[in-house]
Amino acid sequence: KTYPRGIFIGLVMCVLAYVLPLLVAVGATDYSQSDWVDGHLGSVCVEIGGKWLGAWTIFAAAISNLALFEAEMSSDAFQLMGMAERGYLPKIFQTRSRYGTPTAG
Fold first, then answer.
1. Can you tell me the distance from the alpha carbon of 17 to that of 11, in angstroms, rounded to the nearest whole number?
2. What does the buried/exposed string (b/e) look like for 17-54 if buried means 16 or more CB atoms within 10 Å of the residue's CB?
3. pLDDT tens, 13-44?
4. Using one digit for the tens of pLDDT, what is the confidence trace for 78-103?
5. What does R_g of the chain's alpha carbons equal in angstroms?
6. In 39, 70, 92, 95, which residue has its Cα 20 to 30 A from 53's Cα atom?
């Protein structure tokens, strides 16, 4: 009962976190679609809120990329561990820490 509600609230928060800044950026500027290239949201934030908002936007994007990379590497380690447990990879990859997490890979 609590899990679906939490998933729904998380979904709504994620959608709002992506859509609201984009709507503000599009509504507050007169840029055409061809102007929106990689990193343009940071430029728009500097124009709307000043250098501090642009810096925070770029910082948040960098932290987001680091978190996505870490999540991908963690899931890859679990995939390697699962393959080793089924015999597809050497046994070194199936070792676990005392918490049950992979220690190799």
1. 10
2. eeeebeeebeeeeeeeeeebeeeebbbbbbeeeeeeeb
3. 999 998 998 899 989 988 888 888 888 889 99
4. 999 999 999 999 999 999 999 988 88
5. 21
6. 70
What's the Cα-to-Cα distance from 71 to each of 8, 28, 31, 40, 98, rounded to whole Å?
21, 34, 34, 26, 20
Give the DSSP letter of residue 102.
B
- Compute the distance between CA of residue 59 and CA of residue 38 in angstroms, rounded to an integer: 15
> 39: phi > 0 → left, psi -120 to 50 → alpha, else beta; which?
left
Tokens encoding 32: 């055409």
